[in-house]
Design goal:
By secondary structure, this protein is an alpha/beta fold. It has a single domain, classed as HybD-like (Rossmann fold, 3-Layer(aba) Sandwich), CATH 3.40.50. It has 4 helices and 6 strands, in the order E-H-E-H-E-E-E-H-E-H. Strands 1, 2, 3, 4, 5 and 6 form a 6-stranded mixed sheet that branches. Helix 1 crosses helix 4 and helix 2 crosses helix 3. It comes from Streptoalloteichus hindustanus. One of its GO terms (molecular function) is aspartic-type endopeptidase activity. Belongs to the peptidase A31 family. This is Hydrogenase maturation protease.
Length: 157
Amino acid sequence: MSDWAVVIGVGNEFRRDDGVGLAVVSRVRPLLPRGVRVVGTDGEPSRLLDAWRGVRLAVVVDAATAEPARPGRVHHSAVNRLPGGPTSSHGMGLPEAVELARALDGLPERLVVLTIEVADVGFGLGLSPPVARAVPEVAETVLREVGAATAGDGAPR
């Protein structure tokens, strides 16, 4: 069976909270059904397009900044609601990838974006406490999104 879904963790584990997307996908990797690929990436738009090419469902987990900031707060969006929300903690990334994919007719049938507001993206390892506390909640949301897209037996609907 080819991959029908992908879970994409975006971030840099050497920039503290920016690694939260990678932490979430690491947590869910052993729990996902067959046919769901897991990808870790830095969020560069062409890598995101490559990661979700040819799948029906893509779930992207990324760090975000927002004003006013509330580190650890989770945002759950569908692709058509992305603009105007919290922005990626990377200079260029997910919003640009979505716009490029739209222009190229390369969006998956369903694109779910989960962002976690961050406190510290300076150099270093490990997540700040409020961001680390959000990881289990976001991991459960990823599993629910994938589960909702299956027929109950792990096979895609």
